[in-house]
């Protein structure tokens, strides 16, 4: 099974995305007799083989569980072995749309890096399209090529070991979208026109973390007649929805009071422990009276409105629950600047 043909049921040899927690995935190839060991328990592959994708799998003799999901470029991006910085989904989705990449598109990509964006490109262009991807680091090139083939992209993604700045993008042809994630894209831009679709409109995106790279890229794009040049940065903020227990005012006040008591008890404890340490350091046996003992310094338990040791599971129907939603505090931003441009065919010469 590859990323492009997704059956409903897990089979031997399938690559399964095991969801261990929020945004935490482990790609695992199913082999009967093998077991996945995690800090959330152990999961024999045999318990997963034959189950529908999306199933919840209980841990062997334990309370934990995982979900087994079908592989997608988005999940691969979250779990792939990092050999380089990678393009993440908020940027990838924006780039695909701005470059107008669709089923059947012909696309150039350099460098391949860890192959994160290559997976997104391959799925979008599909079996009627082509992605020519180039990488000049041999080990990275080989690793990404093997992964892409294993993931079912063999006939879609054509992978080359090449320095595109000195040696160009052969054998790409008829291309109308170019993505350059290179330290010096301006060295690769001048050779591009020979690989682009004749008479067509071509689009480019250069992905650069530093503004100095952007300046140099824009200079070269202008010199090479690219137009509609625009640099953007993608910021992404997730909205989180959670259940919160409806509490009485009395509970809230008691809990606040208990927090205050606990904080002052912790400070007192710290001071006493420091005193104890100091006494140990300058112990000249001349101190009169019994020194404080560590065990005499008390802890303060937090006030628990449901009784000591009682834990409440979210949704417990003995209580009332409200749904809250809020934006993540941190906006996930600056991975890179994205510089877009368009190359239109030259207008026909007017007869005089
Ligand atoms: C930041 S990584 C690309 C990451 C990739 N976009 C991803 O999503 O996984 C940049 C890659 O470009 C490669 N590279 C740099 N200069 C190159 C060149 N002139 N020709 C080909 N590859 C090059 C580097 O070896 C590196 O692997």
Automatic annotation (TrEMBL):
Domain tRNA (adenine(58)-N(1))-methyltransferase catalytic subunit TRM61 C-terminal: 64-342
Described purpose of this protein according to its UniProt entry: Catalytic subunit of tRNA (adenine-N(1)-)-methyltransferase, which catalyzes the formation of N(1)-methyladenine at position 58 (m1A58) in initiator methionyl-tRNA.
GO molecular function annotations of the record: tRNA (adenine(58)-N1)-methyltransferase activity
Protein name: tRNA (adenine(58)-N(1))-methyltransferase catalytic subunit TRM61
Pfam families: GCD14
Biological process per Gene Ontology, one example term: tRNA methylation
Signal peptide segment: none
EC number(s) per entry: 2.1.1.220
Chief localization: nucleus
Subcellular location field: Nucleus
Cellular component GO terms, alphabetical: nucleus; tRNA (m1A) methyltransferase complex
Swiss-Prot/TrEMBL keywords: Methyltransferase, Nucleus, S-adenosyl-L-methionine, Transferase, tRNA processing
Keyword tRNA-binding assigned: no
Similarity comment: family membership: Belongs to the class I-like SAM-binding methyltransferase superfamily. TRM61 family.
Annotated segments matching region Disordered: 270-296
Binding site for S-adenosyl-L-methionine: 135, 155, 181
Top enzyme category: transferase
Keyword tRNA processing: yes
Catalytic activity: adenosine(58) in tRNA + S-adenosyl-L-methionine = N(1)-methyladenosine(58) in tRNA + S-adenosyl-L-homocysteine + H(+)
């Amino acid at each position: 099974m590859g990323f492009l043909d997704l059956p409903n049921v897990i089979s031997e040899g399938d690559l399964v995305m095991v969801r261990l927690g929020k945004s935490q995935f482990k790609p695992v190839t199913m082999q009967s007799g093998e077991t996945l060991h995690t800090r959330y328990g152990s999961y024999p592959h045999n318990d997963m083989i034959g189950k529908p994708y999306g199933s919840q799998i209980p841990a062997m003799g334990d309370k934990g569980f995982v979900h087994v999901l079908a592989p997608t470029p988005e999940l691969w991006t979250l779990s792939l072995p990092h050999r380089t910085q990678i393009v993440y989904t908020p940027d990838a989705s924006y780039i695909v749309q701005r470059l107008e990449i669709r089923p059947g598109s012909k696309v150039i990509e350099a460098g391949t890096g860890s192959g994160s964006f290559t997976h997104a490109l391959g799925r979008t262009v599909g079996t009627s399209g082509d992605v020519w991807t180039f990488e000049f680091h041999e080990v990275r090139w080989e690793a990404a090529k093997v992964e892409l083939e294993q993931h079912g992209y063999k006939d879609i993604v054509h992978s080359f070991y090449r320095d595109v700045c000195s040696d160009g993008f052969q054998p790409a042809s008829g291309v109308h979208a170019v993505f350059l994630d290179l330290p010096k894209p301006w060295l690769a831009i001048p050779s591009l026109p020979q690989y682009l679709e004749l008479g067509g409109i071509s689009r480019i995106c250069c992905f650069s973390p530093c503004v100095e790279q952007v300046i140099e890229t824009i200079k070269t794009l202008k010199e090479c007649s690219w137009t509609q040049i625009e640099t953007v940065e993608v910021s992404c903020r997730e909205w989180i929805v959670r259940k919160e227990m409806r509490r009485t005012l009395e509970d809230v006040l008691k809990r606040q009071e208990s927090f205050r008591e606990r904080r002052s008890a912790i400070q007192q404890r710290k001071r006493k422990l420091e005193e104890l340490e100091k006494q140990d350091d300058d112990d000249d046996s001349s101190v009169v009276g019994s020194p404080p003992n560590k065990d005499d310094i008390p802890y303060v338990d937090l006030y628990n409105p449901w009784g000591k040791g009682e834990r409440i599971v979210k949704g417990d129907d003995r209580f009332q629950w409200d749904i809250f939603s809020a934006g993540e505090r941190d906006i996930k931003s600056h991975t890179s600047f994205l510089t877009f441009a368009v190359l239109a065919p030259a207008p026909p010469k007017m007869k005089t």
